[in-house]
């Protein structure tokens, strides 16, 4: 393939832009036990003129997404300095957003979207027990009406934030979907053209600035150290930037939670439900959660940037049966969401991608919710393991606590 152009953002020192303090990454944890080992994909290898190098890369991706559902991506075209500028903007947001903007832009998750500002009191518009983290999410309407839908303090920097999201979508995610299309033995642009949504810098998906602050005793007692319940992402791919504060954990095949290690500058790529189903279960949507960090990081703030790539909303959730891989090997029906999906589609039409994501957002549960996080309510025991049990559109989802 022709070499991908590197990211070239608008200048940070254009007239009218206030000075922004640099983001200084906090120290990484000194703890080493209980960390996952993820495969790392060098995206620049896609540009190799040697077909054997590209073939090896596709095989490496195939293995990583079947085994782990998570992988590191490196050499994707954004430098560490450019990335740290984006973290500095997120840090600037949480230092400068006004109380008035927090109120005016407060999210409406009950509508099935995260668009806007999430207060640090749970996943409902109504404030609940403090959970200590804030988010701002940009969806299509937020890009289209920045003057009214984006915190005022960020207005001077929207050229940089928008360019960053366009590059993540149109270059990084597009190349990633090319690799995944090749694993399915489909044309390079199959997933980009037929599954990925378009029409804004984030398509029908969204970009997030999140800030997790250390929490007090009330929250720690209520959530038992959890910051976000175990879940799979509902979309196509999630691109999250590796950060020094280790809170992200993945559920291993050994049925234990493992921290994802810090790899400076790398993207952590995570497969969503849509891609598991499109791939006929050949790709694995891995369960993950956000948990308290190791003890030497308990008092640090964790800043996080994430891009959630979504599929076309009207598309039914179905396997790409044109895939020669699926035609030859069939679907992999013994795991996760695909297994439940098969049961559901024997008795009715599959949900659309929009239905699937909106129901999950609208009914999202809080780790601090002691009323529902109990056995017999939202929890059950399977093979001696406490599981969080949810049901969306007739599909049961069981997640380890
Ligand atoms: Fe997630």
From TrEMBL:
<comment type="similarity">
    <text>Belongs to the iron/ascorbate-dependent oxidoreductase family.</text>
</comment>
<keyword id="KW-0479">Metal-binding</keyword>
<dbReference type="Pfam" id="PF14226">
    <property type="entry name" value="DIOX_N"/>
</dbReference>
<dbReference type="InterPro" id="IPR050231">
    <property type="entry name" value="Iron_ascorbate_oxido_reductase"/>
</dbReference>
<dbReference type="GO" id="GO:0016491">
    <property type="term" value="F:oxidoreductase activity"/>
</dbReference>
<dbReference type="Pfam" id="PF03171">
    <property type="entry name" value="2OG-FeII_Oxy"/>
</dbReference>
<feature type="domain" description="Fe2OG dioxygenase">
    <location>
        <begin position="206"/>
        <end position="311"/>
    </location>
</feature>
<protein>
    <submittedName>
        <fullName>Gibberellin 3-beta</fullName>
    </submittedName>
</protein>
<dbReference type="InterPro" id="IPR005123">
    <property type="entry name" value="Oxoglu/Fe-dep_dioxygenase_dom"/>
</dbReference>
<dbReference type="InterPro" id="IPR026992">
    <property type="entry name" value="DIOX_N"/>
</dbReference>
<keyword id="KW-0560">Oxidoreductase</keyword>
<dbReference type="InterPro" id="IPR027443">
    <property type="entry name" value="IPNS-like_sf"/>
</dbReference>
<keyword id="KW-0408">Iron</keyword>
<dbReference type="InterPro" id="IPR044861">
    <property type="entry name" value="IPNS-like_FE2OG_OXY"/>
</dbReference>
<dbReference type="GO" id="GO:0044283">
    <property type="term" value="P:small molecule biosynthetic process"/>
</dbReference>
<dbReference type="GO" id="GO:0046872">
    <property type="term" value="F:metal ion binding"/>
</dbReference>
